[in-house]
Design goal:
By secondary structure, the chain is an alpha+beta fold. Helix content is about 20%, strand content about 25%. The chain is elongated and about 70 Å long.
Length: about 240
Amino acid sequence: MKKQRLDKIIASQTSLSRKEVASLIKKGELLVDGVVVLSSDEKADPEKSEIIFCGNKLGYSEFIYIMMNKPKGVVSASSDKRAKTVVDLVPDEIRRDGLFPAGRLDKDTTGFLLLTDDGEFAHKILSPKNHIFKTYIASLEKPISEEEKTTLEKGITLADGTALKECEIKILDGTKTKIEIKIREGKFHQIKRMLHFVNNEVLELERICMGNLSIDPSLKPGECRLISEDEKKLISNFDE
């Protein structure tokens, strides 16, 4: 990799600004290959040099991918002046500038949310043409009939003209009020509008899977962790 300025490297891997990084470097908080560096405009190859900043070894990655178990009441956005966002929940040790949610979950919807700073990857997995299924568990106000299930699975056009693609639905319990639903889109309030189309209402909604990657069951609401390269590949079923 081409050598880069040290302040740029560190800022890209943290939530600190380059100005904040430069200030800490001047205080002797940076070691590069065991040597103290006091100038932020010096350069290094982040993939070859050992960089220790503020006592912590910098693990360099061009982009970051985070799995979050989104809780209720949090907005799927990078910033919001009126409400707490999913980015606000990311711990400082893995947070960096440019993070955003790859696809949105409604404020009252929970479960698997992917956060990243890789815009190209996010675009690919959110594009319906790539057939990346998102899987949800929905609790319904009343039982869904086989006829209603078939209607939704074939694809519908809402009253406002919004066309929704085919989906997959599995009834999960004997009361027929709990379903697993897989969709390839992510339109505004899509699952709620789909069930409303067949005169039903969604009481609870949780996303449990993106592509073939299921949410880590050890993550409590509001917790998150980094996604490995192998896990990232499970999200997508297309050639990058």
